Amino acid sequence: xxxxxxxxxxPPPEGSFGAGFSWAIARDLTLALRHPGETLLVVAxxxxxxxxxxxGVGADPQLLLRIGPGVIWVCALLAxxxxxxxxxxxxxxxxxxxxxxxxxxxxxxxxxxxxxxxWLVSGLPLTVLSPLLGLQYGLEVATLAAxxxxxxxxxxxxxxxxxxxxxxxxxxxxxxILLALLALPxxxxxxxxxxxxxxxxxAGLSSAPHxxxxxxLAIVATMGLPFAVCAAVRIALD
Amino acid sequence: MTIEAxxxxxxxxxxxxxxxxxxxxxxxxxxxxxxxxxxxxxxLLRCVAGxxxxxxGEVHREGNVAxxxxxxxxxxxxxxxxxxRGSLALAGATVGPEQxxxxxxxxxxxxxxxxxxxxxxxGQRRRIGLARLMLDPAPIWILDEPLTxxxxxxxxxxxxxxxxxxxxxxxxxxxxxxDLALTPARLLRLGA
Lengths: 238, 192
Description:
Helix content of chain A is 83%, strand content 0%. Chain A has 238 residues and is mainly α.
């Protein structure tokens, strides 16, 4: 079978944002399915730490009610952080990142695809599980809904910010610690508005202002951060 | 489809790796890059591919680039076939399962196509890269030591693959310490 003749007959490939996006998301999800351990670790960490708090601070319902949303948010933030170090480092170490940079697809396409895949295996399960954990703290249904809504809007921002930091830390020795120092301070606004939404709801106020601010953060992050990631990846490969 | 490099200069820290390197590769030609270890072959190739920034000079590439460096770009958890089809999809080529299998057959990996790549030897992993080159429609090949870990049969297969690529109007820039059956149009010597 003449492979060369078949190749010669192919039209020259043209890259597109969508093709790069779907390529990256499909591949990263396949890899995550092959090794579900990392995803399960993130979820297990979230559930364990959020369950340890009530045991540590005592079973005072009033106290648990007050600290619940904040604790769940901090746990979600740390859990989402757990899977960040390998986001680009694995592709960097085996040479796939070079191939992606040289592909005809525009960089923001596959970068966004990778970030979306990261959210699907970290932010999404955390969001889905958060109401269950909220029950441990005795949160009301309306508060649970506000908590889940805030996580649904906020965790994509964590994935975007985390991806930018993860790309910046590429190739640095002790990248994990550097990543924590870079990323965790940047997560602070998301934490404040996210936990604020549920706390406002618990206090009988509207969670809408917090959710709107969180939504604004999400829009700005979606528009801007993939380009920052592209620049950081280029620097890392230079 | 040409590649033209004008007065390329690149330094790493205080060391100038190469200065004012110029060349032009036309369709159907391949250039070999030679030089001792540390003379800047990899850096030159990465500059021409567009991965590393140049201190001075410019590179004009007409056409897509297929780059194969020291790192194979192979995912350990995916099989040879998945790696092959994945890297081709990334290169923008739509390749059916039959074509992928024909290429894997040619490089001798047909029976091992479903094994996770972590269970393949270094040479077999190289052969996945070879199969990818066979199917990659990119006219420009930039290859860094493509013969590493390949046995005699693999090296002959590489030479045939390169010859076919040149026949159909492709061009290549190859850094290698080995002598190929195919004579390069020009030898670029670095660090002389």
